Amino acid sequence: MKLPEMIYSAYSLARSGWMLRGVPSSLAETVAEHSYAAALIAAEVAQRVGADPYEAALIALVHDLAETKVGDIAKVAGIPEAKKVAEEAALASLEVSNLIKSLIMEFNEGRGPEAVVAKASDLAATIIISKYYERMGFNVKEIEENSRTELEALASSSGLGERLLNALRELGVI
Question: How far is residue 129 from each of residues 28, 30, 102, 117, 163, measured CA to CA in Å?
Answer without folding.
Answer: 10, 11, 28, 18, 23
